[in-house]
Amino acid sequence: MSDELYRVLLIDDDRIFRMGMRSWLSQFPDLEVVAEVDTAEDALAILQVDIEENSLASIDIDLVLLDLNLGWINSESVKSNRLSGLELCQRLKSKYPNLPILLLSSPQAPELVAMALRWGVEGYCLKGTNPKELIIAIRQVAAGNPYLGDRYTIDTNQTERLTTNLPNEPVSVVAIIRHNLYLSGLRRIDRMLSDVKAVINAPNQEQLGDRLTKIVLAGQVRELQAARWLMHQIWGNKKRLPVFSQTNVVAKLTESVTSSEVEISDRLVNKPDNDILSIQSSLWDTTVTKLQASLANLSKTHLEIDILKEEKKRELLYIALRQVERSIEELRFSQIQPSQLEDRIPMILNNIWQETVVNFFGKYYILPNSFNTNLEVNVVEILLKDREIVQTEFLDKIPQIDNLLSHLLFETDLVVNNAIAATGTPAAMRRAELILENLIVQIANGVIHPLLNHFANVEEIKQKFYRYNLLSTREVERFRNDLSWQYRLDKYITDPQLIFESRHILFTLANPGIREISIYVPRNQELQQLEGVQLAVTLVLELQDAIAPRLKSAIAFLGSGFVYVLTNVIGRGIGLIGRGVLQGIGNAWQDSRSRK
What we know:
Blueprint: E1 6-11, H1 15-25, E2 31-37, H2 40-47, H3 56-59, E3 63-66, H4 85-95, E4 101-105, H5 110-118, E5 123-126, H6 131-142, H7 156-162, H8 173-200, H9 211-235, H10 248-262, H11 267-270, H12 276-291, H13 310-334, H14 338-361, E6 366-368, E7 376-378, H15 379-384, H16 387-393, H17 401-410, E8 414-416, E9 419-421, H18 426-454, H19 459-465, H20 473-500, E10 503-509, E11 514-520, H21 524-528, H22 533-595
Parallel strand pairs: 1-2, 1-3, 3-4, 4-5
Antiparallel strand pairs: 6-7, 8-9, 10-11
Helix pairs in contact: 8-9, 8-10, 12-18, 13-14, 13-18, 14-17, 14-18, 20-22
């Protein structure tokens, strides 16, 4: 690893991906995300410098991470009026030819990548690349060397040198937050020092006033320097972390980013009451933070995503959350009316599921045909054929989606335990969190369900996605059988019982793990629609409720009567008989002694 600090500009219109990338890069001391933007225009504004020559030292950025899909609403829609990622590449390379650019994007058409490379882009890497390979690509391009994945050969010694700093153990969320707070504090102190020194060294000395003012400002400099030293001693790592000053433009943007990281809890306090975008932003930030913790299933219910590796499960939930956010943005952009929302819920959920499938597996993910090795099978095309099954078994059963979307789009109040929870209140925020977390978990289950039906025992799938203890065919089949029994139990017993009890079970992201939580929701209409076995289950429950208390009372009465008979009648009778026998024996023994 190089001793030099590489300052990174992250350009991606996916806020969830930017947050995840920023948190992941924060564990590497030689990499620092100094700015992140979601449009090409904002990126050009940051890089704009008022100088005659294009010098990289003047803009204080060593690497650009850019999504080539920038400027597109989604892969199927019409291009927006913003600059695309490809157009931004051309402008950056024409204006800053020495600024390294690494394209970190989903699979792209070869001609687009080739065009970007002809313009001078140094590297291209896919989202979802193995972390060790990704960090190699970032450092290699930041150092000015090209990187094209499998199309570029990396020297063995260079690979070993670049991966020297990779941690042997996963970095905890607490460590990441602590490191971010440490860097944030140092940046704030440095900005205050710069402002005070600027006043002291100002050409117009009259603004300093008398000598006393100069002494006060000098004292502030010493206090800030002492605070910086103290913070480094308390929060810093054993190795000294290099801190570099930024230009005014980058520092201004860093200040806003740092403020959003450190003061997330203050957003709702400082926002207007009707700022629903701040509420949504806070809701998404909370969910992203929870996704960084353990995702082990701590509930009593078998989940389809339990077969995935921890990192794959986290990636899938991230993608599902991102697609939910994009759907809400598209709904807001389309200006949908409240009366139209409920009828479009199935279509909205189906679109979220399809986009999650495409982004998780890749639109062109190919596997060899198990019956004919000369043929290939497109995984996504096979999975998307089960949309009707997934819609019926998963998407249509996700509760409270209409309430969540109406809350985020039209600022309607949420009903929590038969009480109105106004927008922005803690009760409404907590209920929105539960609905959103359950939504992304169920979307993820719906993504893995067709995979288990069609490709459960494909070796490439098992090695790439499954947990280590579930690789054998026997364990995979046992996992599928457990899910099958879970489906039957839910359909015929659990679901009608929940309907009869006016409850919903939601899967929430606890810390740590995924847990179940029960919420009260009136379900009288669903109760009236039950029939067959499900209706019989509710009748049995009602009969149990009607008979059980009386039966318990009768059993308790009979039990107390039986105890009374045993103790006061039979017990006393046996006692009297026994006492008479003992007295007779005693009298006989005394008579025999007297005769002797």
